[in-house]
Amino acid sequence: MKTTLEKAKKDPESMKARILAVARRIYGEYGFHGTTMRMIAKEVGIDISTLHYHWGEKKDLYEAVIIDINNDLGKKFVEVERIIHGRPLQERIAIGIDTMVDYLFLHPEISNLVLFRYFGKIRHEELVDLKVPEFTIDIVRSMGLKQDKENISFSMAAVLTIMNSIHSFISGENLFSPMVTQSKDEYITIVKETLKGIFIPAFTQDTSRFE
After folding, report:
1. What share of the chain in percent tops pLDDT 90?
2. What is the pLDDT of residues 16-25, one digit of tens each?
3. Which fold would CATH assign to domain 4-210?
């Protein structure tokens, strides 16, 4: 039997899919504890009973959002890995940054939820979590920074530094963008060039740390 999430993904025009899309955005804006089912229902334009009918309780919908995000991120990382495979390290980093910045700016709820989860004071340990540790190891491997999963703390920290920088620029866009530019496109370009300017030299000048 298909899960509710699988049904929503199979029919993007369905009520389940409409609710999921709104829930991703609102959970991304307010976090699990700051979001109510009534907020989501109001945004979709349905009553609360209809929302419960399609998705159950608040926890059920939130977990579907996180699973959906994990699935999307996993697919994106596979796509990036195919593009960067066999290229020099400098190109792998540049392509990885450009691709992930573009993708996450299109889906800012991902960055927001990552920061809510890992830097928020209030946590709900029973909820499904974002696969940050697993994805970090996958990125380390695909970038060629370390071929095995033993003693990779430095490489993982380096990848987390890049990813957290991207998340911060995206979540902080309303604050940071007016400081450097008035154009969203220019802001995205500045973010990309800044990250590449910092991290490409840091990663490529002394590769012995990743060996």
Report:
1. 55
2. 999 999 999 9
3. Tetracycline Repressor; domain 2 (1.10.357)
